[in-house]
Specification:
Layout: H1 4-11, H2 26-39, E1 49-55, H3 56-73, H4 76-90, E2 94-101, H5 109-129, E3 133-134, H6 140-150, E4 157-166
Antiparallel strand pairs: 1-2, 2-4, 3-4
Amino acid sequence: MSTPFQKAALARRSHRSLTAVSTLSDAELEQLIEFALVNSPSTMNSQTSRVVLLLKEEHVRFWEMAKNGARKVQEGDHLANTLLRHSNFQKGYGTILLFEDSETYKGSAQLQDHGAGILHYVLWTSIAEAGMGASLQHQQSFAQDEAKEAYSLPATWNLVAQMPFGVVAEGVTLPVKSVVPLETRFKSFGGAK
């Protein structure tokens, strides 16, 4: 069995070597994000996820903020590795900043995380289906406050992840994905054998 969704899911991998090229127009990228926001379920339909799309120079600016933040708290090899990762992300076409609004939903943070995870997966898979690569990053401690100020975002928006994206650099091959044996991860009862 191979459905279009399964093909898109297979294409969704962590790509960190990106180019400043998009297969979609900026307007199509906005539509992709709007579609994901409207069609990704959330706990009690709370719709707590918030998204900021940064393109071109704003995308580069965000990763400069992250580099500056890293310089304040890291040093040595750890800092050098972080700066290299951030420089690689800057080579992409854009970054999707993923926030959760703490003012919107006062229930379980774990349930809120479930909705956020679904949105992240829908966005990432949609980008892959459009012929681009992306990765989900968690560098918010380096740039959250600066990003909120730079883009005049509400204080209640908490940055939970960043998704740099773009056409994958030529010649990049990903390793075969390792998979834990399914018999240790999946059980089925009551169905036909």
